[in-house]
Amino acid sequence: MTESTDAIIHAAGCVLWRRSPGGADLEICLVHRPKYDDWSHPKGKLKHDEDALAGAVREVEEETGYRCTPGPRLPTTHYFVNGRAKRVSYWAAEAADGHFTPSREVDLIHWLDPATARDRLTQPRDRDLIDEFLATLRHV
Length: 140
Known about the structure:
Layout: E1 9-19, E2 26-33, E3 38-40, E4 43-45, H1 52-64, E5 66-81, E6 84-98, E7 108-112, H2 114-120, H3 124-138
Parallel strand pairs: 1-6
Antiparallel strand pairs: 1-2, 1-4, 2-3, 2-7, 5-6
């Protein structure tokens, strides 16, 4: 049996999107985490026995202040953090009502068109999620 420190870290998040305030264009929400000085999609660790989709929705609201309506499942990412495997399940999610309030965990959010959001993301795996999100929307 492996020690709990070797266990996979389970997390979930969303590619959070909305229609631009003045039109039909899409905007994607990115969060800035000052601890890592990076830009990413809203995501976080799951609580004990928490369903991945429920965790994704919770994390979106905690990090962005926006409630959301989850849509299609997106690819799961796998990577290592401090030598531990991390698995992050993602969904596309349309933003509903809400208001961002800066916190210690997330100090900024930006709503950006997909191309700008893709360029702003720190990790290549997060950029791939935008491509998958856009491909998924074309087939819905």
